[in-house]
Design brief:
Number of domains: 2
Order of helices and strands: HEEEEEEEEEEHEEEEEEEEEE
Structural class: mainly beta
Distance between the termini: 58 Å
Shape: globular
Length: about 270
């Protein structure tokens, strides 16, 4: 086997920086103050952060530039109020005007690029649009990794919706086939994992319960999607859970690192039966 070139070694290192959720030191999440609300106001507060200890504010808040909220009828919803001034968390309030389940997602995407210019290896990280605008005319041996993440949670007013959300058909998505709200320990919830709208089989998903700061072991459970991309979660006990998955799409050419790195995570709440 021939040794890797400098450009490929650099790209391998860049790809390694985008590790899977199960191995990452920090997990991104959206955490609602409650997942099922009643009453006249119907307002939910949601925190957004990436932390080492799940649902603890020990690292940094997430940018909310990619916030996308879908109402039960499929319409887009704007948060009632947004506060992103805190160092360790970002937060916003959401008014639930309709009965049923809301899908709350925070999206981010961009590119990591390795290239040679004037005999030196250089790197770029940012949006694809920014790279096309700033790309040097004499750049050589250009290698691009596209990355995209979707961080989600679900909240409902009065009672959860019966109909699953329509997939966007972009990147990794986990579509709840059963209601992802008003869960109890002992319940079973079916999900379908999609890649660009198509079922993704044999993918490993990580399930973590909050409160790992106070446990010696994280208690991570690994689940695998079947031939239809489906996976069933049997909720072992009450608590807040983080469900995550990552996927790499390899390059068409051989001996190259992945050119596309995708990740997904969701926060779900399980109450005592």
């Amino acid at each position: 086997m021939q040794p890797l070139t400098l450009q490929v070694r650099t790209l391998v290192a860049m790809a390694a920086a985008l590790v899977s959720f199960s191995a990452a030191a920090h997990h991104p999440w959206l955490l609602p103050s409650q997942t099922l609300v009643d009453g006249k106001e119907g307002i939910v507060a949601i925190d957004a952060a990436a932390t080492e200890d799940l649902f603890e504010f020990d690292n940094r808040g997430l940018s909310l530039d990619g916030l996308v909220i879908t109402a039960p009828d499929g319409a887009r919803v704007v948060p009632t109020a947004v506060n992103t001034t805190s160092r360790h968390r970002s937060s916003f309030e959401l008014k639930l005007d309709q009965p049923g389940t809301y899908r709350v997602a925070n999206l981010s995407q961009g590119v990591m690029v390795s290239y040679r210019l004037g005999g030196e290896t250089r790197r770029f990280r940012g949006t694809a649009e920014a790279w096309e605008k700033e790309r040097p005319e004499k750049a050589e041996d250009v290698r691009v990794i596209q990355f995209a993440s979707r961080v989600e949670t679900f909240v409902a007013r009065e009672k959860p919706s019966d109909k699953p959300f329509t997939p966007t058909g972009q990147g990794l998505e986990l579509i709840a086939l059963d209601a992802p709200v008003d869960l109890s320990d002992g319940d079973h919830t079916r999900f379908r994992l999609l890649l660009d709208g198509q079922p993704l089989a044999d993918a490993a998903l990580s399930l973590l319960r909050g409160g790992n700061r106070y446990r010696y072991k994280m208690g991570e459970l690994t689940l695998k999607s079947d031939a239809k991309g489906e996976v069933t979660v049997a909720w072992p006990e009450a608590g807040r859970y983080w469900l995550g998955v990552s996927h790499s799409t390899p390059a068409e050419a051989t001996n190259l690192p992945p050119l596309r790195r995708l990740s997904y995570s969701a926060t779900l709440e399980v109450r005592p039966k």
